[in-house]
């Protein structure tokens, strides 16, 4: 699959995909006559990067995470620790968002009631 097709598939600019290669997140992309030919495992790596970014990881953190795969002694343990820590951060953020949403819903209900009362008075 060419870079433009992958770009559309994952909704990421081609320049970003090239940058991911440059910083070592996407390696060994096959090339035919100098043109990138992405394979299924490359798409899976890209989806992994997207997921990690959505989870709040910076690109530097993702590079470090990926590089830990080379550490056969402590790599898996360290990766697990990183994931668990980020999970805790996400759960806290979700709790805060839920509290904010609850407050917004309270205000929406309050103003809905006021508007309905006002509309009844106008009739």
Structural features, described:
With 123 residues, the chain is mostly helical. The chain has a domain at 3-70: Multidrug-efflux Transporter Regulator, Chain: A, Domain 2, CATH 1.10.1660. The protein is built from five helices and two strands, in the order ααββααα. The protein has helices at residues 3-10, 14-22, 40-54, 59-67, 75-122; strands spanning 30-32, 35-37. It has a two-stranded antiparallel sheet with strand order 1-2. β1 and β2 form a beta hairpin. The longest helix has 48 residues, at 75-122. The model has no long low-confidence stretch (mean pLDDT 95).
In short:
Helices cover 72% and strands 5% of the residues. With 123 residues, the chain is mostly helical. It has a domain at 3-70: Multidrug-efflux Transporter Regulator, Chain: A, Domain 2.
Sum up the structure in keywords.
Multidrug-efflux Transporter Regulator, Chain: A, Domain 2; 123 residues; 5% strand; mainly alpha; two-stranded antiparallel ribbon; 72% helix
The general outline is elongated
Number of helices: 5
The percentage helix is over 70%
- Report the major sheet: 2 strands, antiparallel
Q: Would you list the SSEs in sequence order as H and E?
A: HHEEHHH
- Class of the domain at 3-70, according to the CATH hierarchy? Mainly Alpha
Our Rg estimate from Cα atoms comes to: 23 Å
CATH structural fold name of the domain at 3-70: Multidrug-efflux Transporter Regulator, Chain: A, Domain 2
Give the low-confidence spans. none
- First-to-last CA distance: 64 Å
User: Mean pLDDT, nearest integer?
Assistant: 95
Biggest sheet: strand arrangement: 1-2
How many strands appear in the DSSP assignment?
2
């Amino acid at each position: 699959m060419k870079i433009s097709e992958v770009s559309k598939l994952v909704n990421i600019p081609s320049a970003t995909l090239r940058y991911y290669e440059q910083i070592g997140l996407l390696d060994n992309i096959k090339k035919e006559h100098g043109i990138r030919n992405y394979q299924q495992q490359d798409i899976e790596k890209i989806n992994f990067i997207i997921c990690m970014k959505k989870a709040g990881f910076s690109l530097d953190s993702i590079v470090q995470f990926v590089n830990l795969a080379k550490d056969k002694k402590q790599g898996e343990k360290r990766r697990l620790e990183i994931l668990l820590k980020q999970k805790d951060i996400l759960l806290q953020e979700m709790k805060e968002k839920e509290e904010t949403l609850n407050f917004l819903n309270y205000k929406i209900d309050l103003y809905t009631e006021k508007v309905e009362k006002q509309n009844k008075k106008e009739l």
